């Protein structure tokens, strides 16, 4: 604006000055708590603790979700010769999208059902295995006890026989017949 000559405000030029800042609107005052006859009670807004997290999520959504308008037909009341073909194409795309969603849903549903049946079969097999394992262990324990019992009874008989004979080796061990 400086052209080398001085201008006055009367020549039609306006002078730019900064406007005073407007104060931010404050929240309305709290109504009296006791004896309120109001239909709607005032509740102060809840403090947002994760405001930064929400902003990050919003930014991520905005960055990753494409903004694309595929239905760009005009705003005039009449339809042109190409509108039917556009409609048919959009309809076909939407039906394909819905069919893909249905197939995906069915696939996920079948997988969850399969996994549930598989888990049930695995639990049943594990229970059968545990039952058989316990049975084997009991049988093994009984066999071991029987063997110990026989050995204990046999040792007693051998000790009795060796004490009757009075024969003992120089090492002090009994002779096994």
User: Span from first to last CA?
Assistant: 132 Å
| Residues in helix, % | 40-55%
Radius of gyration: 47 Å
Q: Biggest sheet: strands, sense, closure?
A: none
Query: What overall geometry do the principal axes of the alpha carbons give?
Result: elongated
Approximately what portion of the residues adopt beta-strand conformation? Answer: under 5%
InterPro entries: Prkrip1
Biased composition (Acidic residues): 162-177
Organism: Vitis rotundifolia (Muscadine grape)
GO cellular component, one term: nucleolus
Characterization of this structure:
One of its GO terms (molecular function) is protein kinase binding. One of its GO terms (cellular component) is nucleolus. Residues 1-30, 69-177 are annotated as: Disordered. The chain is mostly helical and 177 residues long. 55% of the residues lie in helices and 0% in strands. It contains two helices and no strands. It has helices spanning 51-64, 83-165. The longest helix is centred in the C-terminal third of the chain and has 83 residues, at 83-165. It is elongated and about 140 Å long. 0% of the residues are buried.
In short:
This protein is mainly alpha-helical and 177 residues long. Helices cover 55% and strands 0% of the residues.
List keywords for this structure.
177 residues, mainly alpha, 2 helices, 55% helix, elongated
Task: Outline the secondary-structure elements.
Blueprint lengths: L50 H14 L18 H83 L12
């Amino acid at each position: 604006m400086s052209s080398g000559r001085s201008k006055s405000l009367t020549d039609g030029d306006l002078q730019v000055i900064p406007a005073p800042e407007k104060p931010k609107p404050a929240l309305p005052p709290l109504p009296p708590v006791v004896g309120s006859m109001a239909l709607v009670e005032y509740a102060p807004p809840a403090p947002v603790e994760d405001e930064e997290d929400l902003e990050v999520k919003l930014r991520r959504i905005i960055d990753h979700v494409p903004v694309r308008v595929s239905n760009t037909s005009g705003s005039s009341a009449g339809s042109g010769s190409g509108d039917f073909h556009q409609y048919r194409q959009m309809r076909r795309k939407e039906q394909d999208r819905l069919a893909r969603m249905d197939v995906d849903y069915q696939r996920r549903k079948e997988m969850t059902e399969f996994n549930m049946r598989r888990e049930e079969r695995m639990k049943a097999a594990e229970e059968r295995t545990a039952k058989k394992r316990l049975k084997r262990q009991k049988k093994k324990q009984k066999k071991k006890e029987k063997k110990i019992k026989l050995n204990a009874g046999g040792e007693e008989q051998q000790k009795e026989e060796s004490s009757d004979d009075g024969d003992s080796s120089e090492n002090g061990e009994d002779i096994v017949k």
